Amino acid sequence: QAGDWWRGGIIYQIYPRSFQDTTGSGTGDLGGIAQRLPYVASLGVDAVWISPFFTSPMKDFGYDVADYQGIDPLFGTMEDFDWLIASAHDLGLKVIIDLVMSHTSDRHSWFRESRASRANPKSDWYVWADPKPDGTAPNNWLSMFGGSAWQWDARREQYYLHNFLSSQPDLNFHNPEVQQALLDMARFWLDRGVDGFRLDVVNYYFHDRELRDNPPLAPGLRKADTAPAVNPYNHQSHKFSKSQPENVAFLERFHQTIAPYGASVVGEIGDSERALELLEVYTGTPGRVQMSYVFDFLSGTDLTAARVVDVFDRLTSQAPNAWPCWAMSNHDVVRHITRWSLPDQAAKAYATVLLCLRGSVCLYQGEELGLPEAELRHEELRDPYGIEFWPEFKGRDGCRTPMVWDMGVNGGFSTSQPWLPVPHTHLQRTVVAQEADAQSMLHHYRWAVGLRRKHSALRGGTMTDVMAEGPVLSFRRMDDKQTLLIRANLSDDEASGLMPWQVQIIEG
Ligand code: BGC
């Protein structure tokens, strides 16, 4: 039914800082997104997923929220948001917004109150823990951004948990008041007309309290040796977690909140080892989240046909009822054109495969232009994750540079100095230039999206006979109306004489 647009749907991810600037600030804004929605609609996608635009000190560029119901002035006003929603709906586009519920910014009024004392209405809204007798952190848990997951607070003389930056304190989902506040917030946005949510790190909401107080020890270590240095532990992967059932119970409550609006959810499962198992738990049973994107195609320095076969074999065995949302690029990883060193022809073959897969699909802004990762100098970096770990890890700015529209100043993105530079390699791949070139990446993406829209088997059909013959990946998509055979040469070996891709209608 109409509510199931997401099953097999295509979502276009917009990074608002870098899509279109209309205020001369050098960063993108909501008015700019509204202005460019006709272009997004022309791609044939079903929905846009907009990364956070809420009030934020921007330490993690919006994934550190200081007011869940406030639009950061950098991006505009609530009127701009309402205009964006109206424009999108006029164009038949759904709007998904990015809810970052696992943590807030340390500037959020909730945290300001919570940290003020050990006995205030919000003192238990975050994860606080006493130091060990020697004053060190409560246990050996690690932040995803490196170092201990615990930050000392001098006023409460306690540590608070943060899975990312220390300015991103973790909300305590074990507290029903926190759950209620977040459900009320989701309803606020549903009442403003959003069609769904992307749930940031959907498997991180609950920390395991027993695990917190009795952290696992690496072999041979004594109880006292649970400091991060000697026994680092990435607790987010919930390997030993007993809190997953509580996480699922919250997702069921969240679903009950959004279901009356016909809204849908795409979860981000932040886990490498157990992503498919969690995908089955979260999306394989109705009433939790409709889809979750997995990281199999968001990592790795190549994506061979054999690896695609392996992913689908594991999916079939570990997550037979799941509904994955596939993506090759997003705002957190090196753009796949660069990550997999793809010449344009190969990139078109990969895009064809992506848009023929069973599941839902996310396209990341600029991917349809074949944009490579931007090479930035150290002094141009803005992402704390990159600045901290340079040069081993260059951070995430390289995939977050401005969208390039035309041959105007800064690719038509902004008349002011953009917050990240527009690489000259991107200025050769603008939307206007590619509209004029029938062989462009842009036209190929439009063709592949059109293929998926045209063939019901590509959206909801089965996916069988997934095989690799050398570099060639092949698989069948079938529903009660038709059977399609897809073959693609997933290599940059254009000399192989193999068809780069082929989509055959076997019957129907
Ligand atoms: C987002 C990252 C962010 C992190 C912390 C991830 O899911 O995609 O950009 O830094 O969550 O919110």
Automatic annotation (TrEMBL):
<comment type="similarity">
    <text>Belongs to the glycosyl hydrolase 13 family.</text>
</comment>
<dbReference type="Pfam" id="PF00128">
    <property type="entry name" value="Alpha-amylase"/>
</dbReference>
<dbReference type="InterPro" id="IPR045857">
    <property type="entry name" value="O16G_dom_2"/>
</dbReference>
<protein>
    <submittedName>
        <fullName>Alpha-glucosidase</fullName>
    </submittedName>
</protein>
<dbReference type="InterPro" id="IPR017853">
    <property type="entry name" value="GH"/>
</dbReference>
<feature type="domain" description="Glycosyl hydrolase family 13 catalytic">
    <location>
        <begin position="13"/>
        <end position="400"/>
    </location>
</feature>
<dbReference type="InterPro" id="IPR006047">
    <property type="entry name" value="GH13_cat_dom"/>
</dbReference>
<keyword id="KW-0326">Glycosidase</keyword>
<keyword id="KW-0378">Hydrolase</keyword>
<dbReference type="GO" id="GO:0004556">
    <property type="term" value="F:alpha-amylase activity"/>
</dbReference>
<dbReference type="GO" id="GO:0009313">
    <property type="term" value="P:oligosaccharide catabolic process"/>
</dbReference>
